[in-house]
Specification:
By secondary structure, this protein is an all-alpha fold. Helix content is about 75%, strand content about 0%. It has 15 helices and four strands. Strand 2 and strand 3 (about 185) form a beta hairpin. The radius of gyration is 22 Å and the shape is globular.
């Protein structure tokens, strides 16, 4: 009888461990089923729209993911998106060059992230305070510049950065942001490629192992010869570069950027995507592929609200409730596993 109980407890503990390991897939499937029911079915085109609309937040969330793996957080990414997207429009209007606009977005985003990284990693200021401050700074600069730059640089918009549709590269860039290849949105393909690259980086390279080591135990990582300040500086810089890439995608998709509203609450959505994806906010645990499912889940929730014709003002409440439930599962999972493990011993 005791052997049967022990076997049952072992099986249940194993099942709970499996659920915890791939909770991001289960959460996404559950949300997708609800959407299919609410929408009266799920079409391929609807699925591709989810992929397209998740591209910007998904790309940002990958950067947030590696920051969280080190045990830190970045609250500035939403404002950084607005700043980099706005200035990328200016560069495009000045140069009429898509490659230069992309290069600028990546470098300027990396520079913004580097500022965060140096203050957190080298100066050792709390990431929450640093990125809260830069969140205010980046959006303020974006709004100020939009009001004071010459009109031709911002597309003659009084309060919004707009790409000039008179430029030769305008159609090519806008097409890139909205076109599909074999029915798949190009921006969605870009996001998936970014996810694949960072899954490889975090699982198959020394750099990735160092990220996990710093997040698991910074003191032990230091004793093992890892430069913790350098690693934290680098992950914030990479997160900034990915936000720059997301800003380029935003501009390509929308042909404009509003410094007052672009990226609003995106830092929260990125963090939520990371948590839904199973990455621990305390650092050192989680899978980067989960971030993709987290970002997709959040977009599907938006579509459920639309399908049910619910008041859009309740949208963030629903997202917040789902986030709390997922965190509760993450917290309760290890506790239940320990409980069944102790029962197995007795």
């Amino acid at each position: 009888m005791n052997d049967k109980k022990a076997t049952g407890a072992t099986g249940l503990a194993g099942a709970l461990g499996l659920v915890k390991k791939y909770s991001f897939v289960l959460v996404f499937l559950a949300i997708l089923i609800v959407y299919a029911v609410a929408n009266g079915g799920l079409t391929l085109n609807a699925g591709m729209n989810v992929l397209r609309h998740s591209a910007v937040i998904g790309t940002i969330a990958i950067g947030m993911g590696i920051v969280c793996l080190t045990g830190e957080i970045d609250l500035s990414v939403g404002s950084m998106l607005a700043l980099v997207a706005g200035f990328s429009v200016v560069v495009f209007n000045m140069t009429d060059s898509i490659p230069l606009t992309l290069l600028f977005a990546l470098l300027f985003g990396a520079a913004c992230g580097l500022l965060n990284g140096v203050l957190v990693g080298v100066v050792q200021m709390p990431a929450f305070i640093v990125t809260l401050a830069t969140m205010l700074i980046y959006r303020s600069v974006a709004q100020y510049a939009c009001q004071h730059l010459p009109g031709e640089l911002i597309g003659n918009g009084s309060s919004v950065y707009r790409m000039s549709n008179e430029l030769g590269s305008y159609d090519a860039l806008y097409t890139f942001g909205n076109a599909r290849v074999a029915g798949v949105p190009i921006v969605g393909i870009v996001m998936v490629l970014v996810v694949a690259a960072f899954v490889f980086l975090c699982t198959s390279t020394k750099f990735g192992k160092k990220i996990y080591a710093v997040g698991s135990n910074a003191k032990a990582a230091h004793l093992a010869g890892i430069s913790v300040p350098l690693m934290k500086t680098l992950v914030f810089t990479i997160a900034g570069a990915l936000t720059g890439l997301a800003a380029f995608l935003w501009v390509a998709m929308n042909a404009s950027a509003d410094p007052a509203t672009t990226g609003n609450s995106y830092e929260m959505y990125a963090i939520a995507s990371v948590v839904l994806g199973g990455i621990s906010m305390s650092g050192g645990r989680g899978r980067m592929v989960g971030v993709l499912f987290g970002a997709l889940s959040y977009d599907v929730i938006d579509k459920i609200i639309i399908a049910l014709k619910m008041d859009s003002l309740i949208q963030d409440t629903i997202k917040g409730v789902i986030l709390i439930v997922v965190i509760m599962i993450q917290v309760a999972g290890p506790q239940l596993k320990e409980f069944f493990a102790s029962r197995r011993k007795h």
